[in-house]
Specification:
331 residues, globular, 12 helices
């Protein structure tokens, strides 16, 4: 293996660990505990977490845009589309994910978000002529969504909140729908980093006033754990992660890079169990395995991606051949 390949695959596993840890840091940002023993204080509100995360992510990504000399869009159509995508691909899913982790474990959130790839396949079928659902993909969808249903059935009336789980699934649906919308902008040759930056800016501009209207948490009530977690979310899990993602797309291509989706849930579950003492039961493991198996079936023997998709989509939340990567993630 060449030195370049070693560097690329090291970045691949690093990206999986970074994005997989997003759910842990969201949970800690909310509860205010989990990193340092004896850290006093509480956490942030949902609006504060999303605002800080998107603000830091936007600032970091903006530096990449200006460094690359990318021209900023000025026509109303593109600006309107960016606003629409920012609302649906950042504001809504970030708020839903963060809110949901008040009621469900970070591991459960990580597993459920993997379903975005399955939703993406269905959405792409109706939007793109080259992404039709085949019998093999139907088997994958049945397997994957069977895992989602198992998670719901296994946690009804249990510790996991039905509302929190539903919010996570809705966040995954948002990623699927608005990532597909983003593909149309990519096909108009918008640089992925510019698309990602614009959506983060929209996220900060929208959630900032929301946080103010909801009421800011007094600084003295916020723990060191919460501050560490939310700053990590903005800098490491958003800005640094996107930088690694663009490097991997150049070195490995979109198809290989999106395989990171298989790593994220495992990392999320493991970190939740190790650092937050979250319970990892048979239902969670089986449901997660079915979701990932469904994604794998969908992507078996997939033909080479169309040339227009080889540059990536600027999102990171879904792993699919039928629907380019999305995220977050972020998650």
């Amino acid at each position: 293996m060449s030195q370049g390949n070693v560097k690329a695959w090291t970045g691949f596993w690093l990206l999986g660990m970074i994005w997989g840890s997003s759910f842990l840091f969201i949970r800690i940002s909310i509860t205010g505990s989990g990193l340092f023993s004896g850290s006093g204080g509480g956490g942030f509100t949902t609006f504060e977490i999303v605002f800080i995360r998107t603000l830091l992510g936007a600032l970091g990504l903006a530096a990449l845009v200006f460094k690359g000399g990318h021209p900023l869009p000025r026509d109303r159509h593109t600006l309107g589309a960016l606003l629409f995508i920012g609302l649906g691909n950042v504001v809504l899913p970030f708020l839903l994910i963060t809110w949901s982790e008040q009621f469900i474990s970070s591991g459960m959130a990580a597993v459920l978000q993997a379903s975005a790839a399955l939703f993406g396949l269905v959405v792409a079928h109706f939007l793109f002529a080259d992404d039709r659902i085949t019998p093999r993909k139907i088997v994958g969808l049945i397997t994957g969504f069977g895992g989602v249903l198992l998670l719901f059935q296994g946690n009804l009336g249990g510790q996991q909140s039905l509302a929190g789980m539903t919010a996570m699934v809705l966040a995954s649906l948002c990623y699927a729908v608005f990532t597909s919308w983003g593909r149309k902008l990519i096909q108009r040759n918008m640089p992925p980093v510019l698309l990602a930056t614009a959506t983060m800016v929209v996220g900060a501009l929208v959630t900032g006033p929301m946080a103010l209207f909801h009421g800011l948490t007094p600084l003295q009530d916020i723990s060191a754990d919460a501050w560490t977690a939310v700053l990590t979310l903005g800098l490491l899990n958003t800005f640094v992660a996107y930088s690694i993602y663009y490097f991997l797309v150049r070195e490995l291509g979109v198809a290989r890079t999106t395989m990171v989706t298989y790593v994220i849930p495992a990392v999320g579950v493991a970190l939740g169990a190790l650092l937050l003492a979250e319970e990892v039961g048979l239902v969670l493991l089986t449901g997660g395995a079915l979701i990932l198996a469904g994604i794998a079936i969908v992507n078996l023997r997939t033909r080479r991606l169309p040339a227009r998709l080889q540059q990536g989509s600027g999102f990171v939340q879904t792993n699919r051949q039928a629907c380019p990567p999305n995220r977050d993630r972020a998650p």
